Amino acid sequence: MAKARELAIRLRQKQSTGESVKTELKTDQRVLARVTDGIYRQPTSAIRELISNAYDADAENVWIQTDAPRFNEIVIADDGNGLTLEALASLVHHIGGSPKRTEGGVDLGVTNADDVTLSPCGRKLIGKIGIGLFAVAQLTRHFQVITKIAGENYRRVADVKLKTYSEDPAAKGEKQTFNSGDVEIWSEKAKDKQSHGTQVVLMDIRDYTKSLLQSRERWERVQSEEGTGESDDLVRTPPRFHIGSIDPGTGNTRRDDACVPWMSKDKPETRFRKLYQAVLDEVGISTSDPSINDAFDNYFRMLWNLGLASPVEYVDGHPFSLSCDEDLHYFLLSNERRGQAEELSFASNKKRVKVAAGLTLPEKDVKPFNVIIDDIKLYRPVRFTSLPVKGTAALKKPMMFVGKCKPDLSGIPEEITGGSQLSFEAYFLWSSKVVPKESNGIIVRIANASGTAFDESFMHYEVSEQTRLRQITAEVFVLDGLDAALNIDRESFNYAHPHYQFLTGWVHRALRQVTNKHKDLGKIARQKKLNAESKRRHRDIESAVNDALQSLGDYAPDSVAEVDFTDEETSTKEVQSQRKEGTLVFRHDVVLGDVTGGRSTSRNEMDQHLLQEKMKGVAQVLDAYGLLEELEYDDQEQLLRAICQVFLAGGGK
Ligand SMILES: Nc1ncnc2c1ncn2[C@@H]1O[C@H](COP(=O)(O)OP(=O)(O)OP(=O)(O)O)[C@@H](O)[C@H]1O
Ligand SMILES: [Mg+2]
Q1: How far is the CA of 132 from the centre of ligand 1 (A)?
Q2: Are 424 and 476 in contact (CB under 8 A)?
Q3: What is the pTM of this model?
Q4: pLDDT score, position 546
Q5: Which of 422, 425, 384 has the alpha carbon at shortest distance from 403?
Q6: Looking at the 3D structure of the chain, how many domains does it have?
Q7: DSSP state of 365
Q8: Domain end: 551, 575, 603, which one?
Q9: If we measure between CA atoms, which residue out of 288, 283, 280, 271 comes closest to residue 237?
Q10: CA end-to-end span of the chain, whole Å?
Q11: Range of the domain at 587
């Protein structure tokens, strides 16, 4: 504050001379204090931050235990490096000052000595700000961090009771440091000296959070007999899968026992897969497209979203590990301004997308990373093969577009880019039916983690592509850069950052390539279908004429008259010479007219052609019965025209 007063005095002194005053921007500690009040909306965000911290601490396993469906307490335990006493002290005293990605972090054991952007074992660090842990403020005011590093005889326990911003009188005073809560730290003797890891125990979960995790609102809606008119768009049916409901009055479980898509003997890794499959199996059960919002209660939705956000494996493998043997159509995206996607070519002995497209992902894991919540092992709920197909779609085979880009942004000043390079790899999966609905859109992952669900606006793509955009699932894997454009809640981006702007442009160009390819292939597929149909109908007409002629006593195939219709270019001379040779030539426009209605679509043209074939057959039958030779040429034409009119009058062509 003294500094600010000093600045005001200097400004006043200089106001008459017009001289400038140079100073630095200062951050008020209270701004950070607000952060410990919680900046997130969903419990999922807080759990996601704790999972990220375990990942950064080199954990191989994270076990999350809840007392679902009550949610009085949640424990997040990992087998990571743990916090040294110094790191614990730093955590308490430097909210908003993460030691990660700093030289200081090396001494505290949180970063890699060779590269401070990596964890000690070599994972790309997710954390950078030093506030993620305080996301728990959204769930509770009271938590403990119990941590132990290998080689020490003690584990440390930090008991934290957070205050709300306005509670502290210092907030209104002039103090620079702000008390966000009270911490008590003590040591406990550990049995196993070599054990290591951290446990975050969330106690006395807030009622608001419990209510969310218990899906209380949904159950209340289900239980209320009739809806009021205004909220009729709300879901009133119980979720197909849920953990049961709690009566907030008594705290007891209601009549609804949990309904889960697995059996109790199933292993943690099987359970999530069954959960995923259960959503896919919703196809055809209800008339609307399957959605996790309808199928799941909030708890299962949380698991789903944590699977999406965390650096865990895909439920069925990484998209770039797909092989050319899969039933997918592969394309490589172009980085040229007006470029188009090309079919991806696989060398016969190199069958993986990764190799064929020259991609670097998936990298070999330094260490596996498993997240297990209440005996359910999380996976990324996205699959690329055996996808549901929409019956009516012209194109049925899904298309997988992959690409990579490392633009040269050296022309942009460092103050704006933050100094780092931008580099990323991406896929766009087109499939006729995206299941569940929530998998439609794009996710941008930095350091293998993401704070958002699929963004269905595709980073505000403004070209209307109707259903095509609704058929795309896409992910961008950022290898370098963009981090500086990530807002502190990790759930949105700073749109003005050049990395974000470049990425947006690239994604939109990629979308254009995807939709163009879809249009082209769709056209070809429709034409093929039409040709096949035309052939079949053609044969039908031919055999009907043949049958008719055969029923005539002395039928001989070569005695059947040749019939032809003139097209516009045929000269009268040609017509006459053809007639002399015995071909029954008729004027197309007289007999048939134009049935395309002026719109020459492929289908209309096929119909026109088939009508002509029918009239040919009619003429042949009439001739075989000897009915045409009686008539003058003009009358023959008029007769055929009359028959044709009768055909058309019924709507048939
Ligand atoms: N599970 C854990 N294991 C070991 N250390 C941890 C764990 N969780 C938190 N820490 C320590 O606590 C610090 C604060 O965590 P917090 O999530 O608040 O910040 P961060 O991860 O450094 O940055 P960000 O705010 O970007 O997440 C970390 O820097 C780390 O040193
Ligand atoms: Mg963190």
Answers
A1: 7
A2: yes
A3: 0.85
A4: 87
A5: 425
A6: 3
A7: P
A8: 551
A9: 288
A10: 88
A11: 554-649
